[in-house]
Amino acid sequence: MYPLLFRVVLSRMDPESAHHAAMAVIRVLGLPALSWAPRAIAKPDRSLETKALGLTFPSPFGVAAGFDKDVIGAQGLWALGFGHVEVGTLTAIPQDGNPRPRLFRLIPDRAVVNRMGFNNRGADAAAARLRRLRARSHRAVIGVNIGKSRVVDVADATADYVRSASLLAPLADYLVVNVSSPNTPGLRGLQAVETLRPLLDAVRGAAGSTPLLVKIAPDLEDDEVRAIARLAVDAGLAGIIATNTTISRSGLRTDPAVVAAAGEGGLSGAPLKGRALDVLALVRSVVPSGFCVISVGGVESAADVQERLDAGATLVQGYTAFLYRGPLWARQINRGLKKLRRAAVRA
Predict the structure, then answer these.
(1) Residues contacting residue 184 through CB under 8 Å, at least 6 positions apart
(2) Are 147 and 181 spatial neighbours (Cβ–Cβ below 8 Å)?
(3) Cα 319 versus chain centre, distance
(4) 181 classed as catalytic
(5) What's the whole-number average pLDDT of the chain?
(6) Which DSSP letter does residue 217 get?
(7) Catalytic member of 35, 59, 181, 268
(8) Fewer CB within a 10 Å sphere, N or C end of the chain?
(9) What is the pLDDT of residues 280-312, one digit of tens each?
(10) Residues pairing with 212 in the sheet
(11) pLDDT exceeds cutoff 80 at 347
């Protein structure tokens, strides 16, 4: 049913408008009087429970940052079967993001280009919604992803991150420092080890006991990936998220004119799969076995998720395939994982 809806209706809509329409439905699904019904249908099997970051995740598969930027759909996403929801990216100062249009589908590649630019209502507003969410007896595991406010100079980025961390870390199950989005000028330069170390030290101090992770780009050189992974361990972080979107456009099947028309921004979806696997392997090769590595990029099926777990991922996240697979996606992944694991036991 959903493939037909996507082909006939959603694919003809502006992608950002379609996303807002979907989020309106997801918000309704998360209402206290309603969320029990979809959760009863989509709840992951107990065999999928995963221990990480001192938490119990009902499934290793969750929603990556960017889908729920303002903590408005997290409970609805939980009801649909996701094992966790990473909200944001949130900034200390509210911002509108880049001008529209800023989200583009590359349908032949099952991919998306976005240059949203951290559009969000700010850390203070998010903190209020997180407090209400944490008061619920049954709720999603919530990661909070923070980034640099656009109006803040890169030289002042540390104080900006610390402000967000101070507000949000006490309300998060885990906190993520995003230094890898291609859509905020100067942000990716913060991934340089000499710049990243003092930033992470400061945010870790502000985060207190909340597990802290850093999210990195797929476009780093292999040696840079290893260096950041070692730094994350040395700095006492709880984990790494690999990876963010890519600025590469290589190997696409979409008409080059369509790709060119989409313009600048981060590419996500199926074309990112190979590099995301490579970066996962690079990170896992230098961090301890108990160090949390969350793999994201090009994940669509249960087999994709299991492949990441087999390659050393602790948890796996997805986003772009939600646009192409629809609201039953998490349920399909969780059921597929259960079948794959049963088959592995019988083999």
Answers:
(1) 117, 118, 147, 148, 150
(2) yes
(3) 7
(4) yes
(5) 94
(6) -
(7) 181
(8) C
(9) 999 999 999 999 999 999 999 999 999 999 999
(10) 175
(11) no
| Rounded-to-integer distance, Cα 118 and Cα 113, Å | 14
Which residue has 């249960």 as its token pair?
A: 302
Q: Which range is least confidently modeled, 123-132, 175-184, 199-208?
A: 175-184
For residue 101, give the DSSP letter: P
H or E element at residue 313: none
Q: Place 231 in a pLDDT band, splitting at 50, 70 and 90.
A: very high
In terms of phi and psi (left: phi > 0; alpha: psi -120 to 50; beta: otherwise), the region of 122 is left
**Are residues 318 and 63 in contact, defined by beta-carbon separation less than 8 angstroms?**
yes
129: left (phi over 0), alpha (psi -120 to 50) or beta: alpha
**Both structure tokens of 135:** 């008061």
Sign of CA dihedral 110, 87, 177, 64: negative
**Cβ(308)–Cβ(295) under 8 Å?**
yes
Helix (H, G, I), strand (E, B) or coil at 88: strand
The terminus-to-terminus CA distance of the chain in angstroms comes to 34
Structural element, H or E, at residue 315? strand 315-318
pLDDT digit string (tens) for 201-228?
A: 999 999 999 999 999 999 999 999 999 9
C-alpha to C-alpha distance for 345 and 322, rounded to whole angstroms: 29
CA-to-CA distance for 283 and 340, rounded, in angstroms?
A: 25
Supply the Cα-derived Rg of the chain in whole angstroms: 19
Torsions phi, psi for 199 (to 5 deg): -65, -50
Answer whether the bond into residue 320 is a cis peptide, omega within 30°. Answer: no
Closest CA to 174 of 143, 133, 204, 199: 143
| 340 DSSP β-pair partners | none
Widest pairwise Cα distance in the chain: 57
How many residues are there in the chain?
A: 347
